[in-house]
Amino acid sequence: MFFVYILASQPHGTLYVGFTSDLLKRVWEHKNKVVPGFTLRYGVDKLVWYEAHEQREAALKREKQIKEWRRAWKRELIEAHNPHWIDLFPSLSL
Questions:
Q1: Any idea of the CA torsion for 43, 69, 61, 25, to the nearest 10 degrees?
Q2: pLDDT digits (tens, 9 = 90+) for 8-28
Q3: Which of 8, 11, 34, 91 is most buried, judged by most C-beta within 10 A?
Q4: Where are the domains of the chain?
């Protein structure tokens, strides 16, 4: 299983779109500041949206698609599934 995910610094805050084959581990790494770079610099560590894919190529294609979207479209995607921008990490059971 492969995942495309969006992290936020806070509701309506800075967004990060990523891809991984291990969502629990990857989000844990962001939350525990193990991953250097953008998410560490801007405090982006709340999982606000994710999508599972059977095939790696499909997930990578979706990640690239979402990264090219306008911010408003990303917000609409998040709010369609998570209107209150709740951190989904504690409820993950993959």
A1: 20
A2: 999 989 999 999 999 999 999
A3: 8
A4: 2-91
